[in-house]
Amino acid sequence: MQPVFRFAPSPNGFLHLGHAFSALLNAKLAREAGGILLLRIEDIDTARCTQSLVAACLEDLAWLGIEWHGPVLQQSTQFPRYCAAAESLQAQGLLYPCFCTRTDLVRAGQGQKGQKRDPDGAPFYPGTCRALAPGEVAQRLARGDAHALRLDMGKALKRLGASGLSCDWVEQGSGQEAVIRAAPERWGDVVLVRKDCPASYHLAVVLDDAMQGVSHVVRGRDLYAATGIHRALQGVLGLSAPIYHHHALIEDEAGRKLGKSIASRSLRAMRAEGVSAAAIRQSLGFIPP
Predict the structure, then answer these.
(1) Burial letters for 34-64: b for 16+ Cβ neighbours within 10 Å, e otherwise?
(2) 17-32 vs 51-64: helix axis angle to the nearest 10?
(3) CA 271/CA 140 separation, integer angstroms
(4) Quick one: which of 229, 234, 243 has its CA closest to 178?
(5) d(Cα 39, Cα 4) in Å, to the nearest integer?
(6) How many beta carbons lie within 10 A of that of residue 254, not counting itself?
(7) Are 50 and 20 in contact (CB under 8 A)?
(8) At residue 192, what are phi and psi to the nearest 5 degrees?
(9) What are phi and psi of 117, to 5 degrees?
(10) Contact, 202 vs 192, CB < 8 A?
(11) Above 90 in pLDDT, residue 109?
(12) According to the model, what pLDDT value does residue 114 have?
C-alpha cells in the first residue's frame, strides 16, 4: 500500500519558517518513501481561520515549491462527520457535558498547593461536571446552558484495557523506530466538542487522518505528548494507528517556538523583502531533488 503523508496547517495567521520546515520535511519523507503528500487545512476555528488566510497559505506553499496530491481538505467542511463521531461516543457513554467556564476552571485550581497540570502545563481538569447528578445535567441541557463535551478518560481507558487494546505508538522521529508507551491519563478528561465548535483539534485530527488513509503523521515535537490522546481515541473509535514522527521545532533567537503570538516573521514578509524560496529551503536544510 502506498504511504500517505499529510501537512495540516491551521491558518489563523500567515505561515512562518516553522510551517515551512514541517511542510518540506513531509514532502521529503513522502518522496523518499514512494508515497504521496496530502494538504489539509485545519480551520475548525472559523472565526480566526478566514478564507483569505487559507488562500494565503496555499499561495505560500506553492511559492515554496510544495506539491500535494488531490484536492485540499478543509476541516470546516467536515463538521457533520465530527458530530456523528461525537454522537457515537456519547451513545457509548464515553462523553459527558461540561458546563464549566474559564473562570470556573481557574477557581478550581486556586488555593491548591502543587496543583496538578496536564502535559501542556494547563491546570488538570478535576472532573467537576462528571460528578453532576443526571437530573441536574438534564435540567441544564434543557435550559440551553452552554457546554462542551469531555471524554471520560478513565472509562475510555478501562474499555480499551478490557478489549486488550494498547495506546502505545510507533515513533520514527528519533531516526530509529521505537514503540512509545503512551500515558493519555495525564491529560484527564479532554474536551472533544467545544462550546463554539462541533469538534476539538483532537477529535478532528484523528477522524481526518483515518478518513484520508494517512499512514505517516509527521508533525512538531510540541504534539508528542498529545499522541497519547489520539491513540486512545483511535482505540475507542475503532481506527487504525499511523506511524508517528515528531520533529524538532524551529525557534527564534530567544529559544521560543515560532508562532503568531510572538509575531514571528512570516514567509510572505520574507518574500516581500526579496528572500527567495530556494534560500529558505536551503536555510532549513532542504536541497531540491
Answers:
(1) ebbbbbbbbbbbeeebeeebbebbbebbeeb
(2) 60
(3) 52
(4) 243
(5) 11
(6) 6
(7) no
(8) -110, -25
(9) -130, 160
(10) yes
(11) no
(12) 66
Tell me the three cell numbers of residue 94: 464515553
Burial of 213 (0-12, 13-18, 19+ CB in 10 A): middle
User: Residue 101 burial (CB < 10 Å; 0-12/13-18/19+)?
Assistant: exposed
Q: Check if the beta carbon of residue 206 is closer than 8 Å to that of residue 233.
A: yes
Determine the angle formed by the axes of helices 153-162 and 227-237, rounding to 10 degrees.
60
Cα–Cα distance between 79 and 55 in angstroms, integer? 21
Q: Is the pLDDT of residue 133 over 80?
A: yes
Assign 166 to helix, strand or coil: coil
Q: What is the DSSP letter of 276?
A: -
Nearest by Cα to 181 from 166, 163, 202, 162: 166
143 DSSP β-pair partners: none
Residue 111 has pLDDT above 90, yes or no: no
Full set of structural domains in the chain with CATH: 1-77+251-289 (3.40.50.620), 78-207 (3.90.800.10)
Give the separation between CA 42 and CA 51, rounded to whole angstroms.
12
Question: Please, is 193 exposed, middle or buried when counting C-beta atoms within 10 Å of its C-beta (0-12, 13-18, 19+)?
Answer: buried
DSSP state of 171: E
C-alpha cell at 176: 530509529
Reported as a pLDDT band with limits 50, 70 and 90, residue 105 is confident
| C-alpha–C-alpha distance, residues 199 and 193, integer Å | 4
Question: According to DSSP H, which parts of the chain are helical?
Answer: 17-32, 51-64, 79-91, 102-109, 134-143, 153-162, 201-211, 227-237, 267-272, 277-283
Radius of gyration of the chain measured on its C-alpha atoms:
20
Cell of 228: 497519547
> What is the per-residue pLDDT across 217-237, written as a single tens digit (0 to 9) for each?
999 999 999 999 999 999 999
